[in-house]
């Protein structure tokens, strides 16, 4: 048979679209043509596949005109994931393996010149696409990529170390997938959950009772947080311990986060069900933060999906990068549009930002006098736009800790103790409304964040005096609802609103 069909997948965002690799061998002037909107890496597969087949001791049809079509023709294809299906298509068209037995399988893998299979990006995203569409098929991947794909429930994943390991399964009269396992071919099974990854404990933070309380509220309601304080006051230390206060990830959340990390080749099985914390440097561009490129790749906000995005030295980021955060903070997704394609990535992250109050860092500090002029302070704080600050739920001051308190104070409450209260408050909110408080929108705020008479009057007065926008008022209301959940209260009371108002103060300019 001179025509063969092999199934594979192309990645466009988190979507893993089906691709059929069609291989045709014909008489004529020997050539190797690859068509189907292939990127440079895919076109280079011709040389890799030729060398891999020959070095594996198989026969490459050098005297034939080889045409490889990656269908559909209008879908962009990138990376070396199509090396394995192209090689199998050539061998099937040449009659060296049984083409009919390739049905019911999908293949992805990059070939070395010796025929060994190298790992590919997005293995988990491919398995997740099969699971989401209910496609019953076997997915064959390189041995190093198979373990992450096997994390998807019900997925039938096989790992192979070499091209010959795959070829043996489809020889005439050869073994059926799953039988006669050897060192190079195996059914990949989900790895048992290992010990929880060690995280820094909140007990190591001395003092900062107000900041610790703010972290607890932010974790309970999925609220964003901005910390303002002098250098060395402990802002980064607090932020690094924030992920340890969050509830354990569900399987669905873990799969979403792992699939995004897999697209960038940054997923490790050891990090399964560990909430990600991304801390990009302040020199990161807008594309690095929100994603982009061609084909579109996820940025730091998507890699922090269901986890924490920590932006230290907040005003030092490019203005365009910070403004790009505004829509994802509201919607929980980021859409990257290009002329021919658009890709949507999840971006439901918790923003934790830290900054100094002024360029020298000591405005209002008891450690050193501030040497900045009011104009310098205004320009520095003015790097953060009002609309961006309006989308951050909690603004807190983190003062410097005196040496006596730092050295003499015993260890504080552990992350595990705080997490238990956070979990209870989060479960209260989910039972009541099916989502965290920060996610409430429109009529849901009126229905679930009900105020008693005293609290309503207090909020009216605070919003009027502080000049809050409608968004700011709603965010304060959702913040008060979280504080009430931590207190176990059914209705939002004046005390809860009063505490929420403290966390919505604007940055104080130098007088």
UniProtKB/TrEMBL annotation:
Organism this protein belongs to? Variovorax soli
Q: Which family does it belong to?
A: Belongs to the Mg-chelatase subunits D/I family. ComM subfamily.
Q: Which UniProt keywords apply?
A: ATP-binding, Nucleotide-binding
Please list the residue ranges annotated as the MCM C-terminal AAA(+) ATPase domain. Answer: 299-394
Gene3D superfamilies according to UniProt: 3.30.230.10, P-loop containing nucleotide triphosphate hydrolases (3.40.50.300)
SMART domains documented for this protein: AAA
Pfam families for this protein = ChlI, Mg_chelatase, Mg_chelatase_C
Is Cell membrane included in the keywords of this UniProt record? no
Q: What is this protein called?
A: Magnesium chelatase family protein
TM ranges: none
